[in-house]
Amino acid sequence: MKDRKPSLIGGAAFGHIQVERAIAEVRSGRPVLVTAPQGAMIAASFEALDDALVAELALLAQGRARLVLAAPRLRRLGIERQAAGFIALPTIELARVSALSVELEGRIDAPVACLTPADEAALELARLALVLPAVVTVPIDAEAPQVAGLVRVSSAAIVQYRAEEQHELKLISRAPVPLEGATDSEFVIFRGGEGLRDQVAVIVGKPDFSGPVTVRLHSACLTGDLFGSLKCDCGDQLRHTAKFMAENGGGVLLYLDQEGRGNGISNKIRAYRLQAQGFDTYDADEVLGFDHDQRGFAFAGLMLKQLGVTTVRVMTNNPVKIAALEDAGLIVAEDQRIVGRLTDQNVRYLASKRDRAGHFIDMFETAPPAHGGAKD
To answer: Catalytic residue at 270?
Structure first.
């Protein structure tokens, strides 16, 4: 028997690589081919559509195109539905697709059908790519010459990708990084979680890993953490946490690349525009087709375990984070609240998190209001 030649892709599963290539294509505004046992689909995200691409898709569709929408968007269009679905597009009209996908005045104008596995996978691919969850799909023969140049990805690989990637964390680098108020700090960089994004564990001080370790799971917030946005309490929480840990025996601050509750910065800013028009934070996300929270925290538990943490004292207002750490096999010895300033601009946001997502927020425990603008 001849020796097998070494693989150029190492031990990585081919399906995993397919998905990562497809994510890159979707983010670049190009359609991909999603294959499934029931048949193949060309999938083009709503954000990729222009007159030229619509004309090409219409030529291939021959009246069989469909618009795949997430359940929250369908509810906003006026149909009470808990599962995603598709609307037939006998002709692909960009104005109609836009109205159904994102516009406030959009209303359902045709029956909604259940998704095929390929449709479902195409919608998940849009979520993974951090684009709007609205996709035009066109059934097609996978061997048709017109699709020869498209990146191909199987529906099964897309469905499995998120769960697999959560367990593919690798420690990449680490170094001391003195912080204001926490000069004895070390940054430890992991790669993985969901996609090949970098996740940061900041070890503040010298925590005793043999006992309960003070921990915070902090999702990245560019607007609040870096620019000091008054619309949220994220920046306050980040800085207060590091200072508290430095003054109270140390701890581990996980800085997770999950901007906009997992929707990405572009969709977060889209939601901010809707909030400026009167929607609260969760309704704004639903208008765009997102559930209340797209984040997962299983990989955060894996990060802590790789650092040697087994028991935590978690600083959070979010019960989902507490449950996620417990589900990951960590012992939650204690949970404590973390508060920020109450501003004219974030009071409605904080109330929404308390009333609609069950966050442990006492509005009277926050610092006094910092005035500076109209309430959203």
So the answer is: no
